[in-house]
Amino acid sequence: MTQPTVSTAAGPRRFQLPSLSTLGPLIALLIAVIIFSTQSPRFFSGTNFSLILQQISYTAVLAIGQTLIILIAGIDLSIGIVMALGGLVMAKLATESGVPAVLAILAGFITTMFFGFVSSIIITRLRVPPFIATLGMLGIVTALNQTYSGSQTISNLPPALTALGNTFKIGGTAITYGTVLMLVLYLIAWFILSETAPGRHVYAVGNNPEAARLSGIPIDRLTIMVYTIAGLIYGVAALILVARTGVGDPNAGQTDNLDSITAVVLGGTSLFGGRGNVLGTLLGAIIVGVFRNGLQLIGIPSVYQSLITGILIIAAVALDQISRRKA
């Protein structure tokens, strides 16, 4: 019996025309920029584009973790609330327990990694589907956030916790260090996924787990690694969020599950795993940010912003389905 194999070696690359799922988001972004530029004189400016990047920075970082998980055909519905808990741990330890800021940040990272690890253990050892495992984790961590914080926001943070919210100027436009960190993380994630063996294993597991297993890839170990690394990424997102808002908020992150998934699918990553590009996720996050910013500038109520976000995610998944049927 011939066993299916998975190639993890980088072969010669041939030029291919971009697919519809790749070009579609870019075309949508260009059309949105043109429309909003004609409708609001404040939209097309360096200051506004910098603001959009600031607004999406922590959600876009969260979406890196979500991309890794979706590439192995998983999903994480606790992503936003785990980020909020990481921010609370950093803020509470630094302000109320007198812990040095660096150690408080490290504790926040360990906390978010722990919950990513626990989710992966539930999925790999108890064989609970990722949707159910992380939905349960969402409820557990939501309760922990309220209990740990006493349902109160934590303010008066030390400067080290808000340093990523500081800015520097390029051509008169203020850029936050959080935005720079977001872009650096995307480049690192892109390099690991496209140029390293572990990155190719992630695609192999999502594309065909049985073939990956028969090729010697330890699927459970890889799943645990991916969820735990995603947890670390949630911790970085928590630090960016705390720096941007200046508080630890137990109610933060409640809409970021949907926002991160929207960014991933808009960027061309298949919800069925094994196909996608993390740089596409960055494009998806920018599309969401541009739509929300543009609609706000032209005076569209926030309820319609959610409506359009929902339409965008359905359209992106429909395009993915069409692309899969043609493949």
Fold and architecture overview:
Helices cover 71% and strands 2% of the residues. Helix 1 (20-39) packs parallel to helix 12. A hairpin with a 2-residue loop joins strand 1 (167-170) and strand 2. The protein has helices at 20-39, 46-71, 79-96, 101-125, 130-149, 159-162, 177-195, 197-207, 209-214, 219-245, 256-266, 278-297, 302-326; strands at residues 167-170, 173-176. The protein has 13 helices and 2 strands; from the N terminus they run ααααααββααααααα. One of its GO terms (molecular function) is transmembrane transporter activity.
Short characterization:
The chain is built from 13 helices and two strands; from the N terminus they run H-H-H-H-H-H-E-E-H-H-H-H-H-H-H. The chain has about 325 residues and is mainly alpha-helical.
What are the secondary-structure elements, in order, as H or E? HHHHHHEEHHHHHHH
Distance between the termini: 27 Å
Query: What is the number of strand segments?
Result: 2
Helix content: over 70%
| Major β-sheet annotation | 2 strands, antiparallel
Oligomerization category of the chains in this entry:
single chain
Average pLDDT works out at: 89
**Which radius of gyration do the C-alpha atoms yield?**
20 Å
Which strands sit side by side, in order, in the main sheet? 1-2
> In DSSP terms, counting alpha (H) and pi (I) runs of 4 or more, how many helices?
13
Low-confidence stretches: 1-12
Inertia-based shape? globular
- Quickly give the structural class: mainly alpha
Strand content: under 5%
GO molecular function: transmembrane transporter activity
Transmembrane segments: 20-37, 58-89, 101-123, 130-148, 168-193, 222-243, 263-291, 303-322
Protein name: ABC transporter permease
Membrane topology: Multi-pass membrane protein
